[in-house]
Write a structure and sequence with these properties.
Elements lengths: L1 H18 L10 E7 L17 H8 L2 E7 L5 H10 L3 H4 L18 H7 L3 E5 L28 H11 L6 E6 L35 H31 L5 E7 L14 H4 E2 L1 E4 L8 E8 L3 H8 L14 H5 L9 E5 L10 E5 L3 E6 L7 H7 L21 H11 L4 E5 L17 H17 L7 H12 L12 H6 L10
Parallel strand pairs: 1-4, 1-5, 2-8, 3-4
Antiparallel strand pairs: 2-6, 2-7, 5-7, 9-10, 10-11, 11-12
Helix pairs in contact: 6-7
């Protein structure tokens, strides 16, 4: 009798609380953003058979793997500027590398500021590489350098453990691993324990050429990824041991593609297409693959959606949360990427748009040669630009390979590729009358995107001013104070900034 009465009272209390609007207090999710450097989808979870990446595979098995994921610009600082702001580089002003003085222009909101206002503890391990650093309220930043020598990588998970266990407040932690950035070391501090040799691999298909140097580079990129996978395993294990894994949204991606010919610094598939995995226990379909076209401008909107916060009107990305529950959810029809200044000697602005089959590349200065392609094709032995064939090697090469590299160095204003039948963009079909409708449709979509996102380089007079400024830079100078904020964005006060 007493038991029945107690149950009655308990039910009454619950009904009363619900009637009064009471809801259990939901914990804010922690956010762990993991970023690697300079590599494409060379992981076993993406079907690469050269190496096994068990820790990243496990992350994919517990979350959603995005097959068609892209960065906005294929170089570190502009790419990260989008990851942290939800804006394309031409919107936030970070047109090139922070090392060369490019920077956010005006009052650009970033995810660190937003989450700091929401009561999050903020941390970063590894480089920021976005200017100005003062815009980012980072509470904990024990490693600030790039660490391209890849030493003491165990520290990354150790520092992460210290930060995550420091308090019960929700946290946002961005961990930036240095692999697989140049130089491509085969082994550092016995990582990986067993290395890949040039005899174990096939050259990446988008390069279209094979020689001893390229094979060595590719083998060592694989070794970098093996080392990366081990580091991510240590990081995830630490998160599990903290007891906070079940309430942590984990996002993993590379900041852009390989530093090889037709890769980093351009707008090809090998430039911008990346591995991208999202795991959120209880919210994510496990082991699912999404073929939706997703971009790194979607990361900030996704985090805001996870916190039930509205994104700002200027953010052009969309939340990925619907895709975490239903990978077949209709997401976007067109995906856009860009190339701006990168670093001062590689100035060659381009824009690109793709749908689920076709891709159009629009070169804004089609009367010039592509300086990046020229660097790779040059017979000079610059180790940074040895990941492709030299001009003398192409003399006896197949016609399609010659044409592919010629189209890279001296592109037509508009190039069109049928990715369904030509996934690595060997054959430009922009003049093929069979694809005229696709060409016109994609070009209209690109022009509309430039208008919708207020791309300053859609205006010939502004493009001319940016070109003049870059043309007048001495190769030996290290220009840090740019005038482009004034004539591209009307930000006169930016001229006084120094980085």
């Amino acid at each position: 009798m007493k038991c029945s009465r107690s149950i009655f009272y308990l039910k009454s209390i619950i009904i009363f609380l619900l009637f009064c609007g009471y809801r259990p207090v939901e914990r804010k999710p922690n956010i762990l953003l993991i970023i690697s450097e300079d590599h494409g989808q060379h992981l076993s979870c993406y079907g690469d058979s050269v190496i096994q990446t068990p820790h990243l595979d496990a992350l994919a098995d517990e979350g959603v793997l995005f097959y068609n994921a892209y960065v906005t610009q294929s170089v570190c600082s502009p790419s990260r500027s989008s990851i942290l702001s939800g804006l394309y580089p031409h919107q936030n002003g970070h047109l090139g590398l922070a090392t060369h003085g490019y920077h956010y222009v005006g009052a650009v909101e970033n995810i660190y500021r937003i989450l700091k206002r929401e009561g999050y503890r903020t941390g970063m391990i590894g480089k920021l590489h976005v200017n100005p650093e003062s815009d980012f309220p980072i509470d904990y930043h024990p490693i600030k350098d790039s660490n391209f020598e890849k030493r003491s990588l165990k520290r990354y998970s150790e520092y992460a453990r210290d930060f995550i266990n420091a308090s019960d407040a929700p946290f946002f932690l961005m961990v930036n691993f240095p692999d697989a950035h140049w130089p491509f070391q085969a082994q550092v501090e016995q990582r990986p324990l067993k290395t890949v040799s040039p005899d174990d691999i096939s050259v990446f298909p988008y390069i279209g050429w094979d020689n001893k140097t390229i094979r060595t580079y590719v083998a060592n990129i694989y070794n970098c990824i093996l080392r990366l996978d081990q580091c991510i395993g240590e990081l995830v294990q630490m998160l599990t041991e903290s007891g906070k894994e079940d309430n942590t949204l984990v996002i993993y991606l590379s900041d852009h593609g390989d530093q090889m010919a037709r890769g980093k610094y351009d707008v090809y598939e090998a430039s911008n297409r990346i591995p991208f995995i999202v795991k959120w226990p209880g919210e994510t379909q496990r082991g699912m693959v999404s073929e939706s076209l997703v971009s790194t401008v979607d990361i900030v909107p996704t985090i805001l959606d996870a916190l039930d916060l509205e994104k700002s009107d200027v953010m052009t990305g969309s939340s990925l949360l619907p895709l975490l529950k239903n990978p077949n959810h209709r997401f976007r029809k067109y995906l856009f990427t860009e190339k701006n200044c990168d670093y001062k000697e590689s100035y060659f602005p381009r824009r690109a748009v793709r749908d689920h089959r076709f891709k159009l590349i629009y070169t804004l200065l089609s009367d010039r040669t592509n300086p990046l392609a020229t660097s790779y094709l040059s017979d000079l032995s610059n180790p940074v630009f040895m990941g492709g064939p030299k001009r003398k090697e192409l003399i006896g090469s197949p016609v399609i390979i010659k044409k592919m590299y010629d189209d890279w160095e001296r592109p037509a204003q508009i190039q069109l590729y049928d990715l369904q039948n030509d996934p690595w963009e060997y054959n430009n079909v922009s003049e093929d009358p069979r694809f005229l409708k696709e060409k016109e449709r994609l070009f209209r979509a690109l022009k509309q995107w430039q208008k919708d996102t207020d791309d300053p380089l859609r205006f010939p007079d502004k493009l001319k001013l940016l070109t003049i400024e870059h043309d007048t830079i001495s190769t030996s100078s290290n220009k840090k104070n740019w005038n482009y904020p004034s004539y591209l964005y009307g930000q006169e006060e930016e001229n006084s900034r120094r980085y």
